[in-house]
Known about the structure:
The chain has helices at residues 10-21, 61-72, 99-106, 149-156, 165-168, 207-210, 224-230, 235-246, 293-309; strands at residues 2-6, 25-29, 41-44, 47-50, 76-82, 86-94, 110-112, 117-122, 128-132, 137-140, 142-145, 172-182, 193-195, 201-206, 217-222, 255-268, 277-279, 282-284. With 313 residues, it is of the alpha+beta class. It folds into two domains: 2-39 and 55-170 and 270-312, FAD/NAD(P)-binding domain, CATH 3.50.50; 172-268, Alpha-Beta Complex (Polyamine Oxidase, Chain A, domain 2), CATH 3.90.660.10. A hairpin with a 2-residue loop joins strand 3 and strand 4. The model has no long low-confidence stretch (mean pLDDT 96). Flavin-adenine dinucleotide binds next to helix 1, helix 4, strand 12, strand 16 and helix 9. Flavin-adenine dinucleotide (FAD) binds next to helix 1, helix 4, strand 12, strand 16 and helix 9.
Amino acid sequence: MRVVVIGAGLAGLMAAQQLHNNGHDVVVLDKGKSPGGRLATRRIGDATLDHGAQFFTVREPEFDHHVQQWVRAGIVREWCKGFSIQDGHPRYIGTHGMNGIAKHLAKGLDIHCNTFVFEVTRNEDTSWSIKIDDGTVFQSDALVVTCPLPQAYSLLITAHIDIPEVLFTCEYDRTIGLLAVLDGESAVPAPGGVQNPSESLQFVADNYMKGISHIPALTLHFSPGFSEHHWDDDSHAMHQLLIHHAQPFLGNARIVESQVKKWRFATPRAPWPQRFWQHESLVIAGDAMSRPKVEGAALSGLAAAKAISELQN
Length: 313
Ligand SMILES: Cc1cc2nc3c(=O)[nH]c(=O)nc-3n(C[C@H](O)[C@H](O)[C@H](O)COP(=O)(O)OP(=O)(O)OC[C@H]3O[C@@H](n4cnc5c(N)ncnc54)[C@H](O)[C@@H]3O)c2cc1C
């Protein structure tokens, strides 16, 4: 089958790899500059900073199977077994940043980045026409949609399919982030991450201590409440406020460069109870299905690929 996958985040890439391995002709379309979605790593000068997902945990043997392959390939490694409390569960990171996982999965796939899909229509024979921003139309026998659900909704509205409303009314928490390059060691304690240090902050990571940056550089993720409250602040005032909140983590170092990053669809609040939603040759997948976070996205992508492959049986 020819399968189009919309979204080259973890869910889309896992689905696409699996479908490709099963012998399908797969095309992945993503509006971003490169694959990864919320598995995002940015360079600022000599610093390398994860600015989406910071680390991930593993619960299911199916995901563990893939993670151990990534460990053997040197793509991921264990960071620690907890932050202020050691609970014994490994926290994994991308060896060269979380986006390295996406780069690894993207190998051998036909991925079109900078490609914004804005209309999906179902043909009479249940195949699909997928229209992108330059007017090109991709045809496919099956379609996997992995964007955050509100974005999937706006795409699928023209497909005239009876999709449960509750699926698309799923709300997402927002995250405002600050990326800060320092001129010396930070005050972040070992192993280089602090969870929920204050009401305003959800996570602070030292990318140097994590082992992905050549020089000290912090990622600060602000809490959903703080992010919602300050979302529309004037950008200069917001930047200054975020820098103010970074002070306790600087030690004797100074911020030499910093950037603000806003994630509108950071975390789904109430995931759909199954790993995917399917109507004939359409499957909706992603981290809003069954379990949020990196593991949920991966398992949803794998389940979506299985559902598509079973269409032929
Ligand atoms: C700030 C932040 C911190 C996080 N921290 C953690 C963490 O520490 N641990 C953890 O496990 N998880 C964490 N997560 C969650 C984790 O990153 C996500 O659950 C996971 O990466 C989601 O993958 P996905 O494939 O479902 O979605 P995405 O990665 O969002 O992929 C969807 C893709 O669809 C594309 N797209 C959307 N609309 C269109 C369109 N119209 N046309 C073409 N392409 C389109 C987007 O460009 C995107 O690449 C964090 C997320 C954020 C934002």
